[in-house]
Amino acid sequence: MLGPIVILGVFVADTAYRAARQPRLGETVMGDSFALGPGGKGSNQAVAAAKAGGKVHFLSRLARDAFGDLALRTWSEAGVTPEVAFSEQGYTGAAYIFLEAGTGNNAIIVSPGVAGDISEEDIDARADLIRRASVFVTQLEQPLPAAIRGLQLAKEAGVVTILNPAPAAPLPDGMLALCDWVTPNESEAEALTGLLVHDPITAEAAGRMLILMGAGGAVVTLGAQGAVLVPGDGAALHLPAIHVGPVVETTGAGDAFNGGFAVALSEGRSPADAVRFGIATAGISVTRPGTAPAMPMRAEIEALLSRPS
Questions:
Q1: CATH of the domain at 27
Q2: How many domains does the chain have?
Q3: Is 31 assigned a ligand-binding role in the annotation?
């Protein structure tokens, strides 16, 4: 029996404001709409993976408050098993999301709350779960020592490890060597490598640089241009995006991709097929508003992948 997908990360409540443009400092603009919903990169990835058919456990920290209750409801509805430590003081995280009405593009501020206190001890308390996983995924919204400890435990046990290096941040020496796959977008790849990334050719160059820096392989996501798979032992492959319909919101696209990618790898699919599965998951998600609520079900992903090209 395949082991579960274990994802370490942060839950935040997304407060999303849609307007024609962002206000300048000192300025107030009128918005078109407001929505409150579940978010956080790790949580979004866990929801995406569970709805895409994975058996998912999510490691995080919550406060006992209304946003913490929202997290537990979100995971229950998606089929995610929570592996959560509770803080008696502090607050569950929140995010400000600006959505540009004309394009669906976004700008985000994240305040992780008590998830900023996730520690190596929290990870060690779930060490047995991590060691029996098929895939372990983490990002950079929680403290780096916790992410590194999770990657160490997984790597030592032969679990496939994925680092989604978001939001972009400097990585300590040796961290990439713990990663079988690193999955940056254009700006994150540029931040890690110093190389400008804007198309498949430059994405491959950044992926090769990440491998030289220690990663086992890289997938550089390019939004509407799809993704570039750069394995550690073979030729790079550009896989195009799959057009599903008009783009409504891109906020959760990277999380959708990573959740789908993790599911496909956990099922033993090839890296190229796993990237295609992730692209299909993301392609559907951007046609819907929200982040976690936009994640597609397994049947939708399979139907898209079987559609004639």
A1: 3.40.1190.20
A2: 1
A3: no
Residue 40 annotated as binding? yes
Residue ranges in the chain modelled with pLDDT below 50: none
CB–CB of 4/134 below 8 Å? yes
Do the annotations mark residue 226 as ligand-binding? yes
Burial environment of residue 178 by CB neighbours within 10 A (0 to 12, 13 to 18, 19 or more): buried
- Give catalytic residue positions: 255
CB within 8 A of 56, min separation 6: which ones? 4, 5, 6, 7, 46, 49, 50, 79, 80, 81
Residues 6+ apart with CB under 8 A from 229: 207, 217, 218, 219, 236, 237, 238, 239, 271, 272, 275
Q: Please report the pLDDT score of residue 99 as a whole number.
A: 87
Question: Comparing C-alpha atoms, which of 108, 80, 74 is closest to residue 94?
Answer: 108
Q: Is 13 annotated as a binding residue?
A: yes
Kindly report, residue by residue over 27-52, the tens digit of the pLDDT. Answer: 999 999 998 999 999 999 999 999 99
Model confidence over 248-257: pLDDT tens digits?
888 899 999 9
Q: What is the pLDDT of residue 1?
A: 60
Q: Are 6 and 129 in contact (CB under 8 A)?
A: yes
**Residue 58 domain boundaries:** 5-305
